[in-house]
Automatic annotation (TrEMBL), chains A, B:
Any one Gene Ontology molecular-function term assigned to this protein's record: hydrolase activity, acting on ester bonds
Matching Gene3D superfamilies: SGNH hydrolase (3.40.50.1110)
Source superkingdom: Bacteria
Key words of the record: Hydrolase
SUPFAM superfamilies xref list: SGNH hydrolase
PANTHER family per UniProt: 9-O-ACETYL-N-ACETYLNEURAMINIC ACID DEACETYLASE-RELATED, ESTERASE, PUTATIVE (DUF303)-RELATED
Protein name from the UniProt record: Sialate O-acetylesterase domain-containing protein
Domain Sialate O-acetylesterase: 3-224
InterPro entries per UniProt: Carb_Esterase_6, SASA, SGNH_hydro_sf
Annotated Pfam families: SASA
Organism in which the protein naturally occurs: Chitinophaga dinghuensis
Length: 280, 280
């Protein structure tokens, strides 16, 4: 049985980190959902935009795997870039799509957690004021509909870089959203907050860069594992990531990487079969 | 109201053509579904594999647009690489995912057609024998569930290159599948067959290359428009494609392309704003 996690929110949950900036994370026991089926995870996990890239879920899942060596984890990507909290209202397309994807996942997995990152599109005092209350309705309904009342929900802070970038004028109210996220986590059971302290952005000043997404995944996992808020960076985040990267690939993982190179035309058929055969 | 088209089948419906081999097709009035919402289509339209690439739907949609200058078309990607006809059985994950995605699309669009390409995974005399009957059950149920009994279904032939490639041994029975597809189209109303005559493959010998996918889209559209089988290549396929490529981009399309370059880090923020401003 796969242990699955629902990924919802906006672009920083979907992920816009540049893959070239960080080591690859793959693991044949980390799956992602596509068309209602599971396949080995590769980034981008989301496909909400052509610019989808590295998000927080890959390092989250890799850390989960270190603690669950015999089990499989499945990621259910439902985040949508540029979506406001109102876009996530119960009955809307994003909410309904999430329900349908989650229900497909529940045919072959048990949902063990909800990962939420959203709020850049709600950076005004008016929107921040209602944020916690609106989020509560969405999450409560989602839990009821999917019968996952008790699973941990992890919510992450918006990046402190937001108001400094080229588009910083649109994000001056971001601390109010972060306050709302803390308030939400403090006032709802099975809900945990994660800091974005020290994390940095792509040159756009909007999206966490790939390295920051990897770190954010470490923090989300710590919150999930320990069932507690993460108000400060986790000790030795870099070392934790190194442990993930140092894991040698299995034969199955190597063959999937070869298959990809062959399919996109980077390797001819004979070379593909030769290298596949060399895997033993 | 968007006119939408359901895309189902296996990898050659999803598309594995190399984008670098053909001119770009974008059009602000051609949409694709993501997370239950519509956004401007960009290839890959599918995301069933990291190797997803050019499929037949982009040129299909572009031709539809030439005949519907005032309307919008929406593509609903549900094809899954490597799927057999049995994987598409009613009640299975692929079928249920298709239903859920189609129902999301029906909130804001009217489904006007079904595009099917599948069969490489059914290339044995035993599987080909039951192909038409099995497909009939799938399509009949899909039509009933979605209340789209009358919309045209277009089914395309498998490529004649299949038995010649490096993996040709697995596809020797492909003509039997093509016979079954013809039989299906001939024996069911609102169903039309499209030839793959003359189309060629990626070096893998399995997937239509990008140029062939563009041509296949022309044939699918002709079958759809004229409600007839396409047993021979369409006259002037290259000229038809040239007409698509020659269409100048609108301001919205140019700004979407700029946004993409900016988001993936190919253009810094100041240059992005400068070029965006220059669009007028």
């Amino acid at each position: 049985m796969i242990h699955s996690f629902l990924m919802i929110g906006q672009s920083n949950m979907a992920g816009r980190g540049y893959a070239k900036d960080v080591p690859l994370i793959i693991d044949e026991h980390i799956k992602m959902q596509r068309n209602g089926l599971w396949q080995m995870m590769t980034e981008p996990i989301h496909f909400d935009r052509p610019s989808s890239g590295v998000g927080l879920a890959a390092s989250f899942a890799a850390l989960w795997r270190l603690d669950h060596a015999q089990d499989e984890i499945g990621l259910i990507p439902c985040a949508e870039g540029g979506s406001s909290l109102d876009d996530w209202a119960v009955g809307g397309a994003l909410f309904e799509n999430t329900l349908s994807q989650a229900r497909l996942a529940q045919r072959t997995s048990v949902i063990k957690g909800i990962l939420w990152h959203q709020g850049e599109n709600d950076c005004s005092p008016e929107q921040a004021k209602d944020y916690s209350e609106k989020l509560a309705v969405i999450i409560r309904t989602l839990r009821q509909e999917l019968n996952i009342q008790e699973v941990p929900l992890i919510v992450g802070a918006l990046g402190d870089y937001l108001s400094n970038g080229l588009f910083g004028q649109y994000f001056t109210a971001y601390p109010l959203v972060n306050d709302a996220l803390v308030h939400f986590a403090n006032s709802h059971s099975n809900s945990y907050f994660v800091t974005a302290q020290g994390l940095t952005a792509n040159p756009d000043g909007i999206h966490f860069n790939a390295m920051s997404q990897r770190i954010l995944g470490v923090r989300y996992y710590n919150a999930y594992r320990d069932l507690k808020h993460i108000f400060d960076p986790v000790t030795d985040e870099d070392k934790i990531l190194s442990a993930i990267y140092e894991r040698p690939y299995t034969k199955t993982e190597k063959s999937k990487l070869l298959e990809y190179e062959f399919t996109i035309g980077n390797m001819d058929g004979k070379e593909y079969l030769r290298q596949l055969g060399a895997l033993g």
